[in-house]
Amino acid sequence: MNDFGVHAVDVVVVGAGQAGLSAAYHLRRTGFEPDRDFVVLDHAPRPGGAWQFRWPSLTYGKVHGMHALPGKELTGADPARPSSEVIGGYFADYEETFGLRVHRPVEVSAVREGEDGRLRVETSEGVYVTRALINATGTWDRPFWPRYQGQETFLGRQLHTARYPGPESFAGQRVIVVGGGASGTQHLMEIAEVAAETTWVTRREPVYREGPFGEVEGRAAVALVEDRVRRGLPPQSVVSVTGLPLNDAIRSARARGILDRLPMFDRITPTGVAWDDGRTVEADVILWATGFRAAIDHLAPLRLREPGGGIRIEGTRAVRDERVHLVGYGPSASTIGANRAGRAAVDEIRRLLRGAPQPVAAR
C-alpha cells in the first residue's frame, strides 16, 4: 500500500469460491506472489464460497458433481456431514496449503477505468489499481425472485432457496415449492416428510434424464450455455439444460405423488395461489426455488453488457475489455468448469501482461 492508500497489483481476483481459488492457484503456480503481484478479495466471512451458506440438510453425500480443486484432492469426507462444513473446511485447508492469503470480508463496490491503462477496483479495504481482473463472484448473492400479481398481499411466509433453513421449519405447514431445478426437487422431497401438504409448481414440464451422463453429454450441455454467452445473452446454468437425474429418490417421490407438478399459477392471494381457470391452492409458505443471476453489478461502470443483457465472452475474456476475465460464469459455472476456466484465464492474462496478442476464438 502506498502513501495515498492505493494498492497496486498485476491481478485482482474477486471471489474465493471454486473459480476464484482455481485462478489463484494457477497464478501462484506460475510465479505470481500473493499480496505483491495479485490479491484475492472475498466478501464472505469465512472460506467455503457459496457452499458455506447451504442448508444443513444438504449433506456431502447428496452433493452432485463436486470436483476437487487443482492440486489437492478432497478425501475421506463423511457423507453424513453437512456439505457446508465439509467443503468449507476443504477450502480453508486449500487456502492455507497454497498460501493464497485471501482477504475477507472485503466488499467490492465498483470496478472502473483507472489511469495508465489500469483498472480501479473500489473496495471496503481501499482502492486497488490493477492490470487485469478475474471476476469469480458466482451467483449466490443474487437470488432471483419472480414477480406475480398479488405477491405483496400474501399473509404467509415467502423465502428463497438462498435462505432455506432445512425441512424442520416447515413442519405441519402447507407449502408451495416453485421451481423445477435440482434445489426445488430436493427441498420438496425433504419438506414433504414433515409438512401438512406440499404443492409443486413449475413454469415448464420437468425433464428427467435417464442413463449415464458422460463427457459427450456434458460437452453438449456446456455448448448450449456457451452459445448464449457468445451472443451476449444472460447465461443459463449448465444444470438447466441437462434435466433432472432420474435416481431412486426421484422415482420414489414420483410414485408417492410428491412430484406431481402443477403449471405456474397466475396470481398470489392473501391465503395462497390461484389460476385463471378457477383452481386455487391454500398455503402457509411459498418457497421460491427459482435460481440465481450472475453477481456482476460491480462491473457496471465498465459497460461490458451487450444489448441482450449479458456480457459476451470469448473463453473467459470479456469481449469489450481484454483485461477482464469472468470465471464461474455461464459455461464455466460447474465445479469442473470453474477449475478449467481459472487456468485458462491465468494463461491469457500472462500473455496480456507480456504484451502478446490475445488468441481469437473460432466463431
Explain briefly what this protein structure is.
The chain has helices at 18-29, 83-97, 182-191, 215-230, 248-255, 335-354, and strands at residues 6-14, 38-41, 108-113, 119-123, 126-135, 157-160, 174-178, 197-202, 208-209, 244-245, 261-263, 267-269, 272-274, 280-282, 285-288, 313-314, 317-318, 321-326. With 363 residues, the chain is an alpha/beta fold.
Describe the protein in words.
By secondary structure, the chain is α/β, with parallel strands linked by helices. The protein contains 6 helices and 18 strands. It has helices at residues 18-29, 83-97, 182-191, 215-230, 248-255, 335-354; strands spanning 6-14, 38-41, 108-113, 119-123, 126-135, 157-160, 174-178, 197-202, 208-209, 244-245, 261-263, 267-269, 272-274, 280-282, 285-288, 313-314, 317-318, 321-326. Strands 1, 2, 3, 4, 5, 16, 17 and 18 form an 8-stranded mixed β-sheet that branches. It has a 5-stranded parallel β-sheet with strand order 6-15-7-8-11, with helices on one face. Strands 12-13-14 form a 3-stranded antiparallel β-sheet, with no helix packed on it. β9 (208-209), α4 (215-230) and β10 (244-245) form a beta-alpha-beta unit. α1 (18-29) packs across α6 (335-354). The longest helix has 20 residues, at 335-354. The model is unreliable at 359-363 (pLDDT under 50).
